[in-house]
Write a structure and sequence with these properties.
The structure holds 2 protein chains of 2 kinds. Chain A starts with a helix and ends in a 12-residue tail after the last helix. In chain A, helix 1 runs antiparallel to helix 10. Chain A contains 11 helices and 2 strands; from the N terminus they run H-H-H-H-E-E-H-H-H-H-H-H-H. The chains are: A mainly alpha, B alpha/beta.
């Protein structure tokens, strides 16, 4: 019973973070057609920036998180303008640019900070106990923040003009342009949002899982899994895929040792895609 | 135009943030340091030569979190050896020069690095790598009769054993660490009778490492609960593993091969579940390393076989190395001294053999019974344990984390048959 409750909590926390990161990744793919393979490394850098403000300069940890989000969000503007926009619609060149960004950021962190693993202090220290079950306050707050941000993003997309313009671009680029929507402005906004969400996840997970220059690879893989399994262009799909993958990641290691649990999780995803190649909620495209 | 100008400070902000998050390290060098001069400058002796030793270390990839420190330590060891006069062979002085190749934290990278050292750089002596990577490097070193001094074995036969006659093991490894870990378990947590056994996959070493460790535990009166908990080397989230450990019903956890970050994350998750069962980690991890990751609140009921600064009875060579490392890199840096052992022992073996021929050095090394290591006197053995008498077992300390404080436990003079 205790194990089951702990596993549910673990699954929810991991799912919320996976979804936050994957949403940003999906924004860029839906709107700009950009597979931003540098998304994981942006997640990593955010954690380190927060660490430096909080531990290096002794700033309040929440302020550090906010500063990290602002800086990385601003970096999103730069990315869109100088790294993605010039290669709009050119997948090959965009991938090369992303690889360059990964190498530059990873190496910069490697050289300046070193490869030694660090851990952000807990945003909310302490352990909450309810009967025989304990949960760290940090995990609880991470889950709450993740949930609130998800709700805010969904509200933003559905109820604001910019959000609706994002939907329009992702559904029909030419039609959106003919309606007078500024692709570049919306792409820039999507890039800022994507980087901002990755930054929040990077800071929060830096406290839960610790920081290393190579932590981004794992999260990038998860983002890819979510976007493909959920169905490209579907926020609902990402949500359900996040819950599914988070649950698999929290449950399978209980029964299967070693990397085999990861292989089984990927096997489940492949099996789902065999029956629904467009993902859980994606639209089938006639070729 | 104005927007473009606005973007410039934003980019500068990100770049400066990245630079600000760490202080640049001093440049690394592979140049040998001349021995310190105390009186008048020595005569220019043209006959002073350089002996190039290849170093296999993972400078990038997941294992670099451990190995980049090893490279810094290796350079300090080289400086210390050179300041002591280097190696003298038949009256000819040699200063040690290290040439490093990045193993990239995977077997392909190890093979590429070893190939470059052997075929391009023509080295005859190689130290490293650590972890389970020697199985890969041996594919290059053994057929080419390169004297290879490994820093660790995770018990895979291809890493170290009867089929690797040119490989020596210079640092305590899986079995030796287990002996220290069991001593810590007995001394510090006498109430523990049943344990969970946890280990990293460590390149597929579990089928080889699991039986001897279980045997050692059982010989010492411990029963292992259930099967071995094996986790991937690059696992990110240790919450599921911690949930399993918290509900297994064992008295304690005996953690085999792994990195400080692995056990640090798991310890944090375990304590967050309100579980305070003792955890003993049998690997080279200082308590400070684990505490930095687990956090102060979770750092309790924990023992590890790693070393720290300022331990009681620290051997003089280790103390000098620690002082130099602190001077060069600051106090925050942790110390492992695995590759260092390999360099230190190799220098002694070459000098003892009075030859630069790897086969002659190997044969001479096989005639030795003891060697000095930074950990103290090491004993050459391993015929029963590894199938080849090429291992050096040496004293090793265990240390504790108790209510967020690192405490010294004791030294164990490890010897394997």
């Amino acid at each position: 019973m205790v194990l089951a409750v702990i596993t549910v909590i673990n699954a929810l926390v991991m799912s919320s973070m996976y979804i936050l990161v994957a949403l940003g990744f999906a924004f860029l793919f839906s709107i700009m057609g950009t597979l931003n393979f540098a998304h994981g490394v942006i997640y990593m850098v955010s954690g380190y920036i927060c660490y430096q403000f909080a531990v290096g300069y002794g700033l309040n940890q929440w302020v550090s998180l906010l500063l990290s989000v602002i800086i990385v969000g601003a970096f999103g503007l730069f990315l869109e303008k100088y790294c993605f926009r010039p290669f709009f619609g050119d997948l090959n060149r965009t991938i090369v640019v992303c690889i360059a960004i990964i190498l530059i950021l990873e190496t910069t962190v490697n050289i300046t900070v070193g490869t030694q693993v660090r851990s952000l202090p807990a945003f909310v220290p302490g352990v909450l106990r309810a009967g025989i079950v304990s949960i760290s306050a940090e995990k609880l707050i991470t889950f709450i923040i993740g949930g609130v941000l998800l709700a805010a993003i969904i509200w933003f997309i559905r109820n604001t003009k910019a959000g609706q313009q994002m939907q329009a671009i992702s559904q029909n680029l030419k039609g959106a342009v003919l309606q007078g929507i500024s692709i570049h402005r919306i792409s820039a906004l999507a890039c800022v949002l994507a980087c901002g969400l990755a930054a929040v996840a990077g800071c929060l997970m830096g406290a839960i899982l610790s920081l290393s220059p190579f932590m981004g690879g794992h999260m990038l893989l998860k983002a890819l899994e979510l976007v493909i399994l959920g169905g490209i262009g579907s926020i609902g799909g990402i949500f359900f895929a996040g819950l599914l993958i988070g649950t698999l990641d929290a449950t399978l290691p209980l029964f299967i040792s070693g990397a085999a649990s990861e292989a089984v999780a990927l096997g489940v995803i492949v099996a789902v895609l065999l029956f629904r190649p467009q993902g859980l909620f994606g639209l089938e495209v006639e070729m | 135009m104005v927007k473009k100008l606005l973007l410039i400070p934003l980019v500068l902000l990100l770049v400066s943030s990245l630079i600000a998050i760490g202080c640049p390290k001093p440049p690394e060098t592979t140049e040998p340091t001349q021995p310190t001069q105390t009186t008048e400058p020595p005569e220019q002796t043209p006959e002073v030569k350089t002996l190039t030793v290849g170093v296999l270390i993972c400078l990038t990839g997941w294992f670099s979190t451990f190995d980049t420190l090893e490279w810094e330590e290796a350079q300090v060891a080289r400086d210390m050896l050179n300041e002591r006069g280097g190696i003298t062979i038949n009256g000819q002085k040699y200063l040690i020069e290290l040439t490093v190749e990045d193993c990239k934290s995977n077997n392909d990278g190890v093979i590429a690095a070893a190939t470059k050292l052997v075929y391009d750089k023509d080295v005859k002596f190689i130290v490293g790598p650590a972890a389970f990577f020697s199985a890969a490097s041996n594919q290059i070193t053994e057929p080419n009769q390169i004297l290879h001094v490994s820093a660790f074995t995770s018990m895979i036969p291809e890493e170290f054993g009867p089929d690797t006659p040119y490989t020596f093991l210079a640092h305590n490894s899986t079995v030796e660490h287990a002996i220290v870990g069991i001593t810590a378990l007995k001394e510090v947590f006498p109430q523990v009778k049943t344990v969970d056994f946890v280990t990293a996959e460590a390149g597929g070493s579990v089928p080889y490492a699991d039986p001897p460790i279980r045997e050692l535990l059982e010989e010492n009166g411990y029963s292992v609960v259930g099967g071995t908990h094996v986790y991937p080397d690059e696992m990110a989230d240790y919450s599921p593993l911690a949930a399993k450990l918290a509900t297994s019903g064992s008295d304690g956890v005996f953690w085999g091969n792994g990195l400080p970050e692995h056990v640090g994350k798991a310890l944090k998750s375990l304590r967050e579940l309100g579980n305070n069962k003792p955890v003993v980690f049998m690997s080279s991890a200082s308590p400070e390393d684990v505490k930095n990751i687990a956090g102060e609140a979770a750092s309790t009921y924990f023992a590890t076989t790693g070393i720290s600064l300022g331990m009681p009875d620290t051997p003089p060579i280790m103390a000098e190395m620690q002082d130099r490392l602190v001077e060069k890199y600051g106090k925050e840096r942790s110390v492992h001294l695995q590759i260092v052992n390999a360099i230190w022992c190799l220098a002694q073996a070459i000098e003892y053999a009075q030859s630069l021929d790897p086969t002659v050095v190997r044969d001479a090394w096989e005639n030795l019974d003891t060697m000095e290591t930074p950990y103290g006197t090491g004993h050459i053995s391993g015929l029963e344990t590894y199938g080849i008498r090429h291992a050096i077992s040496h004293p090793e300390p265990y240390q504790l984390l108790d209510n967020g404080e690192a405490k010294f436990g004791g030294w164990v003079d490890v010897r394997v048959p």
